[in-house]
Amino acid sequence: MLVPGQVDAPDDPRVADYVGLTDGARRMKHESGAGFFIAEGEKVIARTAAAGYPPRSLLLSPARLADLMPAVEALDCPVYVASYDVLQAVTGFHVHRGALASFGRLPLRSAAEVLTGATRVVVMEQVTNHTNLGAVFRCAAGLGMDAVLLSPNSCDPLYRRTVRVSMGQVFSVPYAYLEDWPGGIEQVRAAGFRVLALTPDAAATDLSDVVVGPDEKVALLFGAEGPGLTEEVMAASDERVRIPMAAGVDSLNVGAAAAVACWVLGRRS
What we know:
CATH class of the largest domain: Alpha Beta
Number of strands: 12
CATH topology of the largest domain: Alpha/beta knot
Mean pLDDT: 91
Structural class: alpha/beta
CATH architecture of the largest domain: 3-Layer(aba) Sandwich
Helix content: 25-40%
Radius of gyration: 20 Å
Strand order of the largest sheet: 8-7-6-11-9-12-10
Number of helices: 11
Low-confidence stretches: none
CATH superfamily of the largest domain: SPOUT methyltransferase, trefoil knot domain
């Protein structure tokens, strides 16, 4: 049975993990350096625990404490309860879901590990928008991709907003950083993958014309919102591919583009 501790002040040291959650730059540096991350909402917290991440603490509103799902209630960690006013003062935003948890990080996988056994992967270059990265992970999980690889300057998949937008799917899709960039693309190719770079360039191959065998290994390259893939990275790909557009629209948001490309190329016969 949970035995909660009451938190009445935002400077209570027991909830230091949750301070200033809206300060993205500080959180990314602080959380990864201190070896933890924050999950928000009961379903995401449950998925995080199921993925094997060790819980450090729970921070809940009184209402959430009363109706926790069994997977969250069973977590073996300190539980703190605070009013919504205190939660907002601690975190910097209105915690409308009323449930936060701090989890310890697990060792990062290597690119070689996540490529082993994979046949469809997503590769992201310099994606620094947490919402977009979360959307890409959710697409990858739901549309048949086996792994996500990130350039070193991409944002943290375990950042709270990324985890929330992905609905916890960052835990179901193996991911790793390609530390050598863009040289790491050659590592992907050496593992047997055909590398396709997504671009709005009208000279690129129409996505519907790309033929991929059910057992062929394919890597889809996506760039950051706005600038897209760098020319150096596109030059390192095997083929440039575009999603045909209409009504004068030149491209899609990277999350939407990932959904389209993963749906078309992530399927297997």
